[in-house]
Amino acid sequence: MLTQYALYPRTNYTLISTPSHNTTIPELPNTTSKPFSVFDGCDNMVEGILFDLVVQTFNIVVGLPANILVIAILIRNRRDPSTSDIFLGCLAFMDAYFGLMLPVSFLNLYHWQSMKAWLALKFSYGVKDTSGPLFLSCICLDRFVAVLFPIAFGRLKDAKYRAGLAAFVLGLTFAYASAKTVGGLPNFEKVFTGEVLATFMWMVVCNASILWALKRSRGAGKDEMHPMKKKAFKMVLSLLAIIVCNYLPLVALFPFQDHYSPVAFTCYVQPVGFAFLNISSSIQPLVYLSRLERVPFLPGSVTKTLCCKEKTEPSPA
Question: pTM of the predicted model, to two decimals?
């Protein structure tokens, strides 16, 4: 029988496998024969799990097609790419992979109850835990250098540098996901906590520095910012807001994991915190699509609805 650990493979807590002081050996057969439930161990504390399941459903309906559309657009524009496209493409691909695994998660919870499927889900959660923060950090780094160190950025425009960095991030991602799948490593969950804290601080400082530099870069005697820089300012500001919304709950809650009871952490803190991380698989591609003047493969009426407003300027590289 699967336990709560199967619902949230990111954690090392297993409520069923942690007997209470009153548990006796004769009670074990009743425990193992208990009917499977998605809320196993959290039967009276289901709100957090329901919240995460709603978010996962949203990712299937909205996030998966949005990420596929982003990948198609990046492939279509491959002859005239921006410097961050390789990171955006890798991020969209990983989020699309994560979205594809969500139906597997539901099928395994309610039908298959397979250990092999459970291990595959653990690997996909490991990919999501690592790829999102690291590739967003790469995008922030690319824009940070472009705005604050334009001369150095011009020398490092060759795609091979970004391809090498993307390959390094993919190596870290698959190493982390493989270690999570194998399991058994002491204090392994603290690796994720440290990663989120480090990448969150970097992204906030990086984007704040970009905003500060763009705000100060007005022409002499002018009160208005250059239209292209103004567009870049709004884009970075929206990205900073998304980073704060998606990662702040994890940063605020997970470092204090030892202060919660295992049941409260597993049933409330963990599913709610990861739900905010998971929803980034939908928000990130939608923000990218909303910045485009016209979304290829979609009719104009859909593009008008998707984008914040009609854009008359070309998108910045």
Answer: 0.77
